[in-house]
Every structure is written in structure tokens, then in C-alpha cells.
Design goal:
Layout: E1 2-3, E2 10-11, H1 20-38, H2 44-55, E3 60-68, E4 79-82, E5 87-93, E6 99-102, E7 107-112, E8 115-124, E9 127-137, E10 157-165
Antiparallel strand pairs: 1-2, 3-10, 4-9, 5-6, 5-10, 7-8, 8-9
């Protein structure tokens, strides 16, 4: 088996035995690179190298970026991110509660301290839209919705990374 130059990820030859542990090892490396992005520690060159590395794995594409929250929330004020390709998985971080969204999901539930938030998701072409549909305390009582639970707190910087297929 060969390895990539920058992150030492697996590159299987036709005759190689593909093992689960190889995928797990690669996922840890990718997770660390995305964590560095979330924490603002990743350099542009490292992100570019990760994109090239993932592209070398087949039909995968990676993009990353950021946005600043506007403070709006709810069904009439959804967040929207548009990517250069159709997203399959989106990672968003804006503090201590990052989220991972998978294409095809229409609901996303997230624990935010003592709160449970439910988002409504819409995947259309290269665009992901979402809004907060409900927020409640773990004891079942309702809580106020806010931009922070929708990843749209006013003035807060949010980072995202997206993985998608190259030929979609």
C-alpha cells in the first residue's frame, strides 16, 4: 500500500487488502486537520494539501470556509451555505458544540448544554439551508430559540468544512 505525501493517508493498490483499521487511522488524521480548522490553527497550505489528498482518494472533493452570524433565526430566517459542488457531509463549528450534517437528513438534533435543539434541514443542489424548529430543556420544558442555537449568533465567526462527490 502506498501513502499520501502530506497526511500519510492510505492509497490502496489493486491487490491490497482493504482493512477497517486503515480507514479508522485515516479518519483520525482527517478529524485532526478539521479540528485545526475549527480552532483557527490550520494554515491555507495545509487545507489545500488536505483537499488535494482527499481528491486523490477517488471522486471526493473538500472545501472549507467561514461565515459571520447575523443573529436571525427560525423558519423565516434560515441559514444558507452554497458550495462549489453538491455536499454529502458538512461540518460546522462556532464554539464548543460543533455539528456534522449528512446529506439527506431533514432533521438534526443537538445537545447544547442543558438544551436540546432540533433543526430542519434542506439540501437543494449545492446549497444547504437550515433553521431552528424547536428548543427545549432536557426536562421537556420549552426554551427560547436564538441565533446561537441555529449557528447564527450575531457577530460570531463560524467555520465549516464540506465533503462532496467530484462528479455531482
Amino acid at each position: 500500500m502506498n501513502r499520501t505525501t502530506n497526511y500519510n493517508l492510505c492509497q490502496w493498490e489493486e491487490t491490497d487488502r482493504v482493512r477497517r483499521t486503515d480507514f479508522n487511522e485515516d479518519n483520525v488524521k482527517i478529524d485532526q486537520a478539521l479540528g485545526a480548522l475549527r480552532d483557527g490553527k490550520a494554515e491555507a497550505a495545509a487545507l489545500s494539501a488536505l483537499s488535494l489528498t482527499v481528491a486523490g482518494k477517488g471522486n471526493c472533493r473538500v472545501a472549507a470556509g467561514s461565515y459571520t452570524g447575523s443573529g436571525t433565526f427560525g423558519e423565516n430566517s434560515p441559514n444558507r451555505l452554497t458550495f462549489p459542488f453538491k455536499p454529502l457531509m458538512v461540518f460546522i463549528s462556532g464554539g464548543k458544540n460543533p455539528c456534522i450534517l449528512m446529506a439527506g437528513e431533514t432533521d438534526y438534533q443537538q445537545s447544547l448544554g442543558m438544551l436540546e435543539a432540533v433543526w430542519k434541514l434542506s439540501w437543494t443542489g449545492n446549497t444547504l439551508s437550515w433553521y431552528i424548529s424547536s428548543v427545549s430543556f432536557f426536562n421537556g420544558s420549552s426554551a427560547d430559540k436564538s441565533g446561537s442555537t441555529q449557528f447564527n449568533e450575531s457577530g460570531r465567526l463560524y467555520h465549516y468544512a464540506v465533503i462532496g462527490a467530484a462528479d455531482t
